[in-house]
């Protein structure tokens, strides 16, 4: 399809699917913007395309700064915020010829799992397999996921702190990739929990995700957590030992984490998981049960650490330096107190309170410090099972001798324990949209986040599910060792869009 034709189709779909609420702001694609697509079309015919995304319409989650479109984080705290600069990732995409088509809806500041905690109302998902409009899109990058699933854009950027591109991908039948922590720049991305935040990529197939990753996978001096060229070379060298290099052509060892087979797993997800493993075995790979014993504690640790970091990050929206200011506060009121009371939604307030508590002197040792310890154990669990060593860990080369023989290459597990719920089943019901019930959705995504590992969710369709003749769609997650992003994408390509 021509680039212009694809762009026009996306723009038409933005109108048709406006009720899904995937976008907060869309670009008026008149004049110069469409001209960019035409120019890319000309370059394409001349064989001088700037990149694989030249002339493609890309949607950007609304917690990533754009100079010429407002950035709201779906919050009243940032009403009408206009960033004076583009985030590095936006700059990189535009330099590669991509056109930013709009800003997508999300849970306020990225906090949530269903994209319902938005000042602009919930995102709704239109599932290909069920043709229903009322399902949860997952969160917090639900707007990006729905924009991709309904072809309102070629691909989209999201952010993933504890699963926010992978869960929406699983719920909407799209591909969601969270690269290793530090590979993609976060300069200009509004911080939620810095030690976990990553920019993620969403697409309708693995190859379009791969194209965007190729554009964004670069060092950025403006982001102090972005890996330098030196460290990147070290990571690559780490993957070039004879045993690891042979993975390019020989069968892989696929790990199945036994702790992920929880009682809450729905039958359709379990079926998609086991058929995916059977398919990989038919492709010649071997399957190995492995144990990640700290998995059980990962979710609790995440929900201590992420709110703690959030409470400190969100302190800046005080109406003095950042955020809206309630300037008509009555005499005697503090601008600060009035502003913070009205700007944030209930879920964000809950996280700030939780975070402030776990960082308080009395609670610190029992909550924050314990959670940090669990985080180390989660990382250690992964390091024990992978064949490749953790390239940034001290003394990893020693461990490498042993694990190169016995370790596995990637883990395959579900992305979410169950299919997407109906929005009507929980809208307006605070006990379901927050608290442990909603947090449970992240149980399979947070371990890789705590360890900073690359992970991708891909859609797998199961036919004649449980002998009923029904078709079910589930997200299957592939997790790799730190820095092994290319292998994760390669395995994902093999399973991508399979009917099993
Ligand atoms: N659902 C998780 C949370 O609310 C993950 C969010 C994210 O990855 N941004 O913290």
Q: How would you sum up this structure, described in words?
A:
The chain has an eleven-stranded mixed beta sheet with strand order 1-3-2-6-8-7-12-13-11-9-10, sandwiched between helices. Strands 4-5 form a two-stranded antiparallel ribbon. The protein has helices at 3-16, 31-46, 88-95, 142-149, 166-172, 206-216, 229-238, 242-245, 267-282, 295-313, 335-343, 346-358, 365-385, 396-406, 430-433, 435-439, 446-451, 485-495; strands at 23-26, 57-61, 99-104, 124-125, 135-136, 155-160, 175-178, 198-203, 253-257, 286-290, 410-414, 455-465, 470-480. Helix 10 (295-313) packs across helix 12 (346-358) and helix 10 crosses helix 13. It has 500 residues and is an alpha/beta fold. Strand 12 (455-465) and strand 13 (470-480) form a beta hairpin. It starts with a helix and ends in a 5-residue tail after the last helix. The mean pLDDT is 91. It has a domain at 3-229: Amidase signature (AS) domain (Amidase signature (AS) enzymes, Alpha-Beta Complex). Bound molecules: glutamine. Residues 110-113, 140, 159-164, 192, 306, 442 line the site of glutamine.
Question: Layout of SSEs?
Answer:
Layout lengths: L2 H14 L6 E4 L4 H16 L10 E5 L26 H8 L3 E6 L19 E2 L9 E2 L5 H8 L5 E6 L5 H7 L2 E4 L19 E6 L2 H11 L12 H10 L3 H4 L7 E5 L9 H16 L3 E5 L4 H19 L21 H9 L2 H13 L6 H21 L10 H11 L3 E5 L15 H4 L1 H5 L6 H6 L3 E11 L4 E11 L4 H11 L5
Parallel strand pairs: 2-3, 2-6, 9-10, 9-11
Antiparallel strand pairs: 1-3, 4-5, 6-8, 7-8, 7-12, 11-13, 12-13
């Amino acid at each position: 399809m021509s680039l212009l034709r694809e762009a026009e189709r996306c723009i038409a779909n933005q109108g048709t699917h406006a009720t899904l609420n995937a976008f907060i702001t869309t670009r008026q694609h008149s004049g110069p913007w469409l001209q960019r697509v035409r120019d890319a079309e000309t370059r394409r015919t001349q064989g001088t395309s700037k990149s694989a995304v030249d002339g493609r319409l890309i949607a950007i989650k609304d917690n990533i700064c754009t100079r010429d479109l407002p950035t709201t984080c779906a919050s009243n705290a940032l009403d009408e915020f206009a960033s004076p600069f583009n985030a590095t990732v936006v700059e990189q995409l535009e330099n590669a010829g991509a056109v930013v088509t709009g800003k997508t809806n999300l849970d306020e500041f990225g906090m949530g799992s269903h994209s319902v905690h938005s000042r602009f109302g919930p995102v709704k998902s239109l599932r290909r397999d069920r043709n229903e409009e009322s399902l949860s899109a997952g969160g917090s990058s639900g707007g990006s996921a729905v924009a991709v699933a309904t072809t309102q854009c070629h691909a989209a950027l999201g952010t993933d702190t504890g699963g926010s591109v992978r869960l929406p991908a699983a719920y909407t039948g799209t591909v969601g990739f969270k690269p290793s922590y530090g590979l993609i720049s976060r300069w200009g991305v509004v911080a939620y929990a810095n030690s976990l935040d990553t920019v993620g990529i969403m697409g309708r197939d693995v190859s379009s995700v791969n194209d965007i990753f190729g554009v964004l996978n670069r060092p950025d001096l403006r982001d102090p957590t972005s890996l330098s060229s030196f460290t990147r070379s070290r990571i690559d060298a780490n993957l070039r030992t004879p045993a690891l290099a042979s993975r390019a052509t020989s069968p892989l060892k696929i790990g199945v984490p036994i702790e992920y087979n929880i009682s809450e797993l729905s039958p359709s997800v379990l079926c998609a998981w086991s058929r995916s493993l059977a398919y990989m075995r038919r492709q010649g790979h071997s399957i190995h049960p492995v144990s990640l014993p700290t998995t059980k504690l990962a979710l609790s640790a995440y929900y201590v650490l992420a709110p703690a970091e959030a409470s400190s990050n969100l302190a800046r929206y005080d109406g003095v330096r950042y955020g809206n200011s309630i300037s008509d506060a009555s005499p005697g009121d503090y601008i600060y107190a009035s502003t913070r009371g009205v700007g944030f939604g209930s879920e964000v307030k809950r996280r700030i309170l939780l975070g402030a508590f776990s960082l308080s002197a009395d609670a610190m040792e029992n909550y924050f410090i314990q959670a940090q310890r669990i985080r180390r154990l989660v990382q250690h669990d992964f390091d024990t099972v992978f064949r490749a060593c953790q390239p940034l860990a001290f003394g990893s080369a020693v461990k490498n001798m042993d694990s190169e023989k016995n370790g596995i290459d990637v883990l395959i597990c579900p992305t979410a324990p169950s299919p997407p719920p109906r929005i009507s089943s929980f809208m307006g019901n605070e006990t379901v949209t927050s608290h442990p019930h909603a947090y449970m959705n992240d149980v399979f995504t947070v371990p890789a986040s705590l360890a900073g590992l690359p992970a991708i969710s891909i859609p797998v369709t199961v036919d004649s599910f449980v002998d009923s003749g029904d078709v079910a769609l589930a997200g299957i997650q592939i997790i790799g060792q730190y820095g092994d992003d290319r292998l994760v994408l390669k395995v994902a390509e093999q399973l991508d869009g399979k009917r099993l």
